[in-house]
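I have a small job for you when you get a moment. Would you make up a two-line entry for one protein for me to read? No commentary is needed, just the two lines. Write everything out right here, beneath this request.
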Amino acid sequence: MRYPYEDTIYEIPVPGFQPGDRFRMALLADLHNCAFDEVLRRLDEARPELVLCAGDMINCPRFPRKPAWDNALSFYRELAKRFPVYAVRGNHEERWKDAKDESLREGYEAFCGELSEMKIELLDNRIVKIKACGTALNLAGLSPDRFSYRGVAKGMRMLPKGTAESLLGEKPEGFTVAVSHTPNTIEDLAAWGADLVCSGHIHGGIMRPGHKTGLIGPGLQFLPPYTKGRYQSGKTTLLLSAGLGEHSLPVRIGNPRQIIYADLTEAPHGL
């Protein structure tokens, strides 16, 4: 089934930016190996400076199926021709990476090798520095292990305190954008000091009877606390994508596929 798309733009103030400065980042998540031509067309029109991929771009292996990654790999290849791309693992990539079958694990390593050849930066528990409008920024990718996704059917279990620091080290000076597949990292990343967190995983709640309500989360959790859009945890902003594809429950009701654009701009005086 063909579902509609929506493009959502959020302005994020950054200290050090000057009047008129604007640096656009696109946030993509949860492609799940679906078709991608419309996504590329929209990105070509929006012209972001870089693209952040927040995981679950492939479908993980589940016995007896092998992982589905052909569309995702082609998508990454086309993305890398157009934009700088930074990616982290989602729970589907984690399951592939940790598969019991050695040949599956070798397939994951080959997949990552192809991404590296495309010059795609894998930010799995790494921090890189970039320049945006002459201002130094940090891009941090947090990829906790697959056990952090367990128990979501009983409620969204937040990541244990201190996980971000243990995986990323001390938060560096300067404005920091963290990419992590699941929003259950928001409290720990906020305590760590991230200024902006970009996530996916919840698929917008699959069915949305209202603008602010998503009904179902991963693991069939009812009324997850984070579903789609912009949230605040102290001084940290979370941008949560409704995703680009579907997998086990291939349904979207009142819930378009989504591309989020974070436009970094001049901070108000005194911020």
The chain is about 20% helix and 25% strand. The longest strand covers residues 5-14.
